[in-house]
Amino acid sequence: MKYLLDTNVITEPQRPQPDQRVLEWLFSQDQATLFVSSLVLAEIWQGVLALPQGARRVRLEAFARELSGQYRVLNFDERAARAWCELVTGPGHDLPLFDSLLAAAALSRGLVLATRNDADFRKSGVKLFNPWT
Known about the structure:
Largest sheet: 5 strands, parallel
CATH architecture: 3-Layer(aba) Sandwich
Helix content: 40-55%
Oligomer: single chain
Radius of gyration: 15 Å
Number of strands: 5
Structural class: alpha/beta
Strand order of the largest sheet: 3-2-1-4-5
CATH topology: Rossmann fold
Strand content: 5-15%
Number of domains: 1
Order of helices and strands: EHHEHHEHHEHE
CATH class: Alpha Beta
Protein backbone atom coordinates (compact mmCIF):
# COMPACT_ATOMS: atom_id res chain seq x y z
CA MET A 1 0.00 0.00 0.00
CA LYS A 2 1.21 3.53 -0.78
CA TYR A 3 0.44 6.48 1.48
CA LEU A 4 0.21 10.24 1.15
CA LEU A 5 1.13 11.66 4.55
CA ASP A 6 -0.82 14.55 6.03
CA THR A 7 1.01 17.28 7.92
CA ASN A 8 -0.02 15.86 11.28
CA VAL A 9 1.69 12.54 10.48
CA ILE A 10 4.87 14.16 9.16
CA THR A 11 5.24 16.43 12.18
CA GLU A 12 4.33 13.91 14.89
CA PRO A 13 7.97 12.83 15.47
CA GLN A 14 8.82 16.50 16.20
CA ARG A 15 6.33 16.79 19.06
CA PRO A 16 7.68 16.83 22.64
CA GLN A 17 5.71 13.64 23.42
CA PRO A 18 4.91 11.94 20.09
CA ASP A 19 2.30 9.21 19.95
CA GLN A 20 4.11 5.88 20.03
CA ARG A 21 1.58 4.21 17.68
CA VAL A 22 2.29 6.80 15.00
CA LEU A 23 6.05 6.49 15.38
CA GLU A 24 5.92 2.70 15.22
CA TRP A 25 3.73 2.77 12.12
CA LEU A 26 5.71 5.51 10.38
CA PHE A 27 9.13 3.96 11.01
CA SER A 28 7.99 0.46 10.08
CA GLN A 29 6.93 1.50 6.57
CA ASP A 30 9.01 1.04 3.45
CA GLN A 31 10.15 4.58 2.58
CA ALA A 32 9.34 3.90 -1.08
CA THR A 33 5.65 3.70 -0.16
CA LEU A 34 5.49 7.06 1.63
CA PHE A 35 4.72 10.28 -0.21
CA VAL A 36 4.49 13.85 0.98
CA SER A 37 2.64 16.46 -1.04
CA SER A 38 4.32 19.70 -2.02
CA LEU A 39 1.23 21.25 -0.39
CA VAL A 40 2.20 19.70 2.96
CA LEU A 41 5.74 20.96 2.53
CA ALA A 42 4.34 24.46 1.99
CA GLU A 43 2.21 24.17 5.12
CA ILE A 44 5.19 23.04 7.17
CA TRP A 45 7.36 25.87 5.86
CA GLN A 46 4.57 28.34 6.63
CA GLY A 47 4.60 27.17 10.24
CA VAL A 48 8.38 27.28 10.49
CA LEU A 49 8.68 30.77 9.04
CA ALA A 50 5.95 32.06 11.38
CA LEU A 51 8.11 31.15 14.40
CA PRO A 52 10.30 33.78 16.04
CA GLN A 53 14.05 33.41 15.60
CA GLY A 54 15.52 30.98 18.08
CA ALA A 55 16.55 27.40 18.73
CA ARG A 56 13.11 25.91 18.01
CA ARG A 57 12.92 27.61 14.62
CA VAL A 58 16.45 26.48 13.73
CA ARG A 59 15.58 22.88 14.67
CA LEU A 60 12.33 22.93 12.68
CA GLU A 61 13.99 24.56 9.66
CA ALA A 62 16.46 21.66 9.59
CA PHE A 63 13.55 19.22 9.85
CA ALA A 64 11.71 20.94 6.96
CA ARG A 65 14.83 20.90 4.76
CA GLU A 66 15.26 17.15 5.27
CA LEU A 67 11.71 16.17 4.32
CA SER A 68 12.20 16.07 0.57
CA GLY A 69 15.13 13.70 1.09
CA GLN A 70 13.18 11.43 3.43
CA TYR A 71 9.96 11.11 1.44
CA ARG A 72 8.94 11.02 -2.18
CA VAL A 73 7.49 14.45 -3.01
CA LEU A 74 4.25 14.47 -4.96
CA ASN A 75 3.70 17.77 -6.75
CA PHE A 76 0.20 19.09 -7.31
CA ASP A 77 -0.05 18.53 -11.05
CA GLU A 78 -2.63 18.38 -13.83
CA ARG A 79 -3.98 15.00 -12.66
CA ALA A 80 -4.47 16.35 -9.15
CA ALA A 81 -6.07 19.52 -10.53
CA ARG A 82 -8.60 17.46 -12.47
CA ALA A 83 -9.35 15.29 -9.41
CA TRP A 84 -9.79 18.44 -7.32
CA CYS A 85 -12.30 19.91 -9.78
CA GLU A 86 -14.28 16.66 -9.74
CA LEU A 87 -14.15 16.59 -5.94
CA VAL A 88 -15.31 20.15 -5.30
CA THR A 89 -18.09 20.04 -7.89
CA GLY A 90 -19.43 16.71 -6.60
CA PRO A 91 -21.30 15.75 -3.48
CA GLY A 92 -19.57 16.35 -0.17
CA HIS A 93 -17.54 19.28 -1.43
CA ASP A 94 -17.53 21.11 1.89
CA LEU A 95 -13.89 20.40 2.70
CA PRO A 96 -11.65 23.37 3.44
CA LEU A 97 -9.48 24.31 0.46
CA PHE A 98 -6.24 22.80 1.74
CA ASP A 99 -7.91 19.52 2.71
CA SER A 100 -9.69 19.26 -0.64
CA LEU A 101 -6.39 19.80 -2.49
CA LEU A 102 -4.70 17.13 -0.38
CA ALA A 103 -7.56 14.70 -0.93
CA ALA A 104 -7.38 15.34 -4.67
CA ALA A 105 -3.65 14.68 -4.71
CA ALA A 106 -4.23 11.30 -3.04
CA LEU A 107 -7.20 10.46 -5.27
CA SER A 108 -5.30 11.33 -8.45
CA ARG A 109 -2.58 8.80 -7.63
CA GLY A 110 -4.64 6.12 -5.89
CA LEU A 111 -2.85 6.74 -2.59
CA VAL A 112 -4.19 6.17 0.90
CA LEU A 113 -4.24 9.40 2.90
CA ALA A 114 -2.62 8.88 6.31
CA THR A 115 -4.07 11.45 8.71
CA ARG A 116 -5.39 11.94 12.20
CA ASN A 117 -8.30 13.91 10.73
CA ASP A 118 -9.93 10.98 8.96
CA ALA A 119 -13.46 12.18 9.80
CA ASP A 120 -12.76 15.43 7.90
CA PHE A 121 -11.98 13.54 4.70
CA ARG A 122 -14.66 10.82 4.69
CA LYS A 123 -16.97 12.56 2.21
CA SER A 124 -14.12 13.02 -0.27
CA GLY A 125 -14.00 9.34 -1.23
CA VAL A 126 -10.26 9.11 -0.59
CA LYS A 127 -9.03 5.92 1.11
CA LEU A 128 -7.96 6.74 4.66
CA PHE A 129 -5.67 5.41 7.35
CA ASN A 130 -5.43 6.84 10.86
CA PRO A 131 -2.16 5.76 12.54
CA TRP A 132 -3.43 7.09 15.88
CA THR A 133 -6.02 4.34 16.13
